Amino acid sequence: MSASTDSAIVKLENVHLSFGQTQVLKGIDLTINKGDAVSIIGPSGSGKSTILRCINALVTPQSGKITVAGTRVDQLTKESERIQLRKRVGIVFQQYNLFPHLTVLDNIVLAPTRILGADKTATVKLARELLEKVRLSEKADAYPGQLSGGQQQRVAIARALAMKPELVLFDEVTSALDPETVGEVLWVIRDLIRDGMTSILVTHEMRFAEEISDTVVFTENGKIVDYGPPQQIFHSTDNPRIRQFVGGLSGGGRGAVRDGEGI
Amino acid sequence: MSMTATQAPKTTAKSSRVLRSIGFVAMPLLVVIWSLVDLTLGKELVEWIPYLASGFSMNILITICAVTLGTTAGVLLGLMQLAPYWFVRLPAQIYVQIFRNAPALVLIFATTYIFPFEIVVAGNYLPFPDWVKAVIGLAILSSAYIAEITRGAVLSIPTTQWEATKGLGFSRLQALRYVILPQCVRRSLPPWMNVASSMAMGTSLASLVGVHELMHAATDASTAVRRLDFTIIAYVVVMAAFFTLCYPIARLTRRLEQRFNAG
Ligand SMILES: Nc1ncnc2c1ncn2[C@@H]1O[C@H](COP(=O)(O)OP(=O)(O)O)[C@@H](O)[C@H]1O
Ligand SMILES: [Mg+2]
């Protein structure tokens, strides 16, 4: 979270958002630099998913400035302009949401070829490379229903990467998984971050967040309570709410990552 | 005649075997044996078979045209009912509500007597035959049913599928075309088959407005021959013929379902 705006790929300034009468975001300021990995942690309902949805224009805030990869997202008025932005920002959801009628390979190839108009042969090649990267080469012709949750989530990550996004948003991508498959998904994300992909993760995996993040952001009740390097948020914060939250969750998170490290 | 299109047929393998043996074995056997026992009856039947067959070809023609037209219009109307604009949605909703509950016979009478017997196109008088009017009547009915089937199928796809497409930069129409509708096809096949079979049965109603179809032909034949046993056997032939018209529809649907399920 440097002050320099040149290297900032995402910048939120005083973002306010309500759904009807409910105020969900109450003045969010956040700057993320190219190549950074940022984890957003905080209690359920604090607005973490909504922050991600603002970034790729799935929701539009009532006020505030949002700049993503040079685009003023808050000023986009047409759906077609928002679609252009979403092609450049990948998002992976908790419920993977693969297309059940398509094979793993076709799930990955569909959007680049149909939406970006990419060459079919080149995209298939790219898809196979991505499958190798997420360690699922042998599942190219399987259907999503034949895969475990962890495998489906890795396909969903490959599907997002096939669009060659400038940054990727991960919204609690391990929360719906069996504990034994959490590790294989975190492993893939860790690799991605090491390759320099700008990543914003909403996560409950505290150990993982501590390990891979450049910055950790703690949200509560629609506000950013504190942010900083993992060391600071997890070990030297004075804020009693953060201490309580981190202390309450770290047990589960630690166990899950240890399983993953065995892979 | 029942025209229910709402329930999927739950024919078990056993009951379908019973049906098949009645339709393809018992009824033809009855006709053949009776004709051989009483050769005068057999002779009458052989004489009238070409006439009955010409009538039956009309049932096939009306069925194919009505189902093709009704399916095309129905899918469009079903999607219109889900459109985000009221001026697209409302006309479709009104159309479907009116015609979904109209009896087939009423629609066939209406189209027969509302449309002229010839139409003027660029100064030329073109005949507007009654069978085409019957096609339109049945197509209107089936389009209303199929609109409801389509609407229901689209709504049954989880919203997370839409969310996934949105995150990948699909427009609404692209999402429908590549992700939502392909998943709807499989879900809609059983109710679609019900509609198609109902339409095949419904073609017999066209005899009441003077279309020379199988029912009409059988009535002609029995009036001309004036023998009770011939009348009975002629209508057994009619039943067997309608069975052979509906049976391939059921087979085709089951074949398609299996192909989708394998996928
Ligand atoms: N589409 C929506 N309509 C109404 N309320 C919503 C909607 N999406 C989220 N909310 C509300 O906004 C608040 C924050 O939601 P969310 O950003 O999903 O929180 P988190 O991801 O931190 O759990 C919650 O109280 C939730 O009920
Ligand atoms: Mg959330």
Describe the structure in brief.
The complex is a heterodimer of chains A (263) and B (263). Chain A is α/β, with parallel strands linked by helices and 263 residues long.
Write the layout of secondary structure elements.
The complex is a heterodimer of chains A (263) and B (263).
Chain A: E1 8-19, E2 22-33, E3 37-41, H1 48-55, E4 63-68, E5 71-72, H2 79-86, E6 89-92, H3 104-114, H4 120-133, H5 149-161, E7 167-171, H6 179-194, E8 198-202, H7 206-212, E9 215-220, E10 223-228, H8 230-235, H9 240-261
Parallel strand pairs in A: 3-8, 3-9, 6-7, 7-8
Antiparallel strand pairs in A: 1-2, 1-4, 4-5, 9-10
Helix pairs in contact in A: 3-4, 3-5, 4-5, 5-6, 6-9
Chain B: H1 13-37, H2 39-80, H3 86-100, H4 104-114, E1 118-121, E2 124-127, H5 130-156, H6 159-167, H7 172-202, H8 214-225, H9 228-262
Helix pairs in contact in B: 1-2, 1-9, 2-5, 2-7, 2-8, 2-9, 3-5, 4-5, 5-7, 6-7, 7-9, 8-9
Bound molecules: adenosine-5'-diphosphate (ADP) and magnesium ion (MG).
Magnesium ion binds at residues 48-49, 171-172 of chain A.
Strand percentage of chain A: 15-25%
Proportion of helical residues of chain A? 25-40%
Number of helices of chain A: 9
CATH architecture of chain A: 3-Layer(aba) Sandwich
Tell me the number of structural domains of chain B.
1
The helix content of chain B is: over 70%
Strand order of the largest sheet of chain A: 6-7-8-3-9-10
In N-to-C order, the SSE pattern of chain B is HHHHEEHHHHH
Q: Low-confidence segments of chain A, ≥5 residues, pLDDT <50?
A: 251-263
Provide the CATH top-level class of chain B: Mainly Alpha
Using only CA atoms, what is the Rg of chain B? 22 Å
CATH-assigned homologous superfamily of chain B: MetI-like
Small molecules bound: adenosine-5'-diphosphate, magnesium ion
For the sheet with most strands of chain B, the description reads: 2 strands, antiparallel
Rg of chain A (CA only): 18 Å
